[in-house]
Amino acid sequence: MPPKFDPSSVVEVYVRATGGENRVAKVSVVPSASALVIKALKEPVRDRKKEKNIKHTGNLSLDDIVEIARVMRDRSCARQLKGTVKEILGTCKSVGCTVDHEDPVDIQNKLEEGELEVPEA
Question: What PANTHER family does this protein map onto (predicted)?
Answer without folding.
Answer: 60S RIBOSOMAL PROTEIN L12, LARGE RIBOSOMAL SUBUNIT PROTEIN UL11
